[in-house]
Amino acid sequence: MLARLGQALLLACCLLAGCANLNAPRPPRYDGPGALPPLAYYQMLSKMTPGELSRERSVLAALPKTPNTQLRTAMLLGHPRGPQDLGKAIGLLDAVLKSNEPPALGLHPLARLLADNYLERQQAEGQIDRLAVQLKESQRKSGELQEKIDGLADIERTLPQRSRPVRPAAVRAPR
């Protein structure tokens, strides 16, 4: 009787464990149709360390060049915490946007959004670079002007002191 009870409990545990596996969350697939899998992929990228991002780059490089893979590679190349290459990312997004294959058509809105974002970031980085050059030039000119002012002050200190002429007191008329 006790053996049968043990067998029944073991069978019940196995059945429950099997049911629990059916309800276990599956790892997400990022290569599915539509924009949701790439969006989930982008969310996953934000949780990765820089080392994991580098490994992910090599994983994506080994995959076939589908529109989804190109989009995910562009996301990785444009991710702020990874090694960025916005020019290459924009090129990949343009390839997705030019493709008229059915898998690519579902990705066009997301690819357009990312391409616009990356173009704006690229322009902002260019403007930052130009402003940095202007700042250095202004600092150089400011230094040169300060040297000229210091030189004039040195010249002024070396000039002999002039005696001031005494002015006669003004004569006042009686009232």
Tally of individual helices = 7
| Spatial gap, N to C terminus | 141 Å
- What is the number of beta strands? 0
Spell the H/E element sequence: HHHHHHH
Average pLDDT metric: 81
Structural class: mainly alpha
The helicity comes to over 70%
Radius of gyration: 37 Å
Q: Looking at the structure, what is the overall shape?
A: rod-shaped
Tell me which oligomeric state these chains represent. Answer: single chain
Question: What low-confidence regions span 5 or more consecutive residues with pLDDT below 50?
Answer: 20-27
Q: What percentage of the residues does DSSP assign to strands (E)?
A: under 5%
Major beta-sheet overview: none
Task: Describe this structure as you would to a colleague.
This protein has helices at residues 2-23, 36-45, 50-62, 67-78, 86-98, 102-105, 108-158. The protein is rod-shaped and about 105 Å long. The protein has a domain at 33-118. The chain is mainly α and 175 residues long.
In short:
This protein has 175 residues and is an all-alpha fold. Helices cover 71% and strands 0% of the residues.
Descriptors for this entry?
mainly alpha; single chain; 0% strand
Please write out the topology.
Blueprint: H1 2-23, H2 36-45, H3 50-62, H4 67-78, H5 86-98, H6 102-105, H7 108-158
Helix pairs in contact: 2-4, 3-4, 4-5, 5-7
